[in-house]
Amino acid sequence: RRVFEPESLLNNYSPTIQEEEFKWLLQEEVHAVLKQLQDILKEASHRFALSVGGSEAAVKQENFMLGSSSTDQVKGVLTLQGDALCQADINMKMPRNNQLLHFAFREDKQWKLQQIQDARNHVNQAIYLLTNRDVDYQFKTGSEVLKLMDAVMLQLTRARNRLTTPATLTLPEIASSGLTKMFTPALPSDILVNFYINLNKLCLTVYQLHALQPNSTKHFRPAGGSILHNPGAMFEFGSQRYEVSHVHKVECVVPWLNDALVFFTVSLQLCQQLKDKISVFSGYWNYRPY
């Protein structure tokens, strides 16, 4: 009875249809997919108003009207320039006395949106991974392609997560963020504001605070980190304790952020499809370097 010996099979090996298909996949289709990915991600990079080479282009300013379906307590216009919020013009009606407040960024101030900046950096890192080889480079193994796809997918997932997962902040972190010092006239001491990206929306949250008296009988329990704090949340800042009395969240859709998220999804699907095709062939040559 003959014993199966991989070595003897290798010595008498002749190319099969499957191997020819695998070679074609490595030599032709992989490069076609990489080119397609480069084109898509360059479009995504253009949406972030940064050229692939890394130099800042002239970025136009875009105005967005803040809106909410639940309240008209806060209205305003935000001016976005790439990853910078360069103006925020906000009107707010105080619930207690219907007093109308108006505040806007000082002329010399702008607020960097770190989420957009980070997402853009991850996109450019993915492009670098896709283009960082000679034009005539040929992939030799499936594992080499899988490794590249995993690295690209990691950057794209991080880019997407930066837009879909806003940072959780404590109320003292919001109070000390520097955002409160950007407005003219200065914000009242009983108002906090926070800006963040959530999916394709630029969001503004306004917190109205109630100062707790030192002899207050309320059980003080400081709130932890959250994307959005609810009325009743308490915190201490400086030597004063506060409670959130009202929360107003308004937002505006940024169309090019939606485009970028679509590009991320399509690119991730292309990467996964190529990984699946490579993996199909791995079973044909278990004894070959893969």
UniProtKB/TrEMBL annotation:
<dbReference type="Pfam" id="PF10259">
    <property type="entry name" value="Rogdi_lz"/>
</dbReference>
<comment type="similarity">
    <text>Belongs to the rogdi family.</text>
</comment>
<dbReference type="GO" id="GO:0043291">
    <property type="term" value="C:RAVE complex"/>
</dbReference>
<dbReference type="InterPro" id="IPR028241">
    <property type="entry name" value="RAVE2/Rogdi"/>
</dbReference>
<dbReference type="GO" id="GO:0008021">
    <property type="term" value="C:synaptic vesicle"/>
</dbReference>
<protein>
    <recommendedName>
        <fullName>Protein rogdi homolog</fullName>
    </recommendedName>
</protein>
